Predict the structure.
Amino acid sequence: MLIELLPALLWIIAVVMALNIIALTILRGHLFVSRLRRPPVYPVSWTMVAAHVVSFAMAIVPFPVYALTAGMMDIDVREFYEQNALIGAIIVIVLVMLEILVMYLQAHNAMETEMDRRLGLAVHGNKNSDK
């Protein structure tokens, strides 16, 4: 019974992990806040990059686990996995690509924050030197 559930449990873990990474990146990157009202955004942390790599690995793991354990499963369970394998693969691929997209958008917002900070320092620095 556990062998039959293992690929599905691993897939669910991969999906939940990807959704958490996407949600955290959206929150940290303030992706849905206009530039004028956006608080400072910091670059994507190395922890999030590592989590993305782990998420990518977890997205792949259920498929070879199924291939290795399929012989120990009931025929009905194998048919279920085989019917839904393409849909499951598409879902995890889309989620991993969304992770990359939101990380890019956070990095873009962080770049805008840094650019605004430096331009602000340059403008205020020039005003102070004119006195």
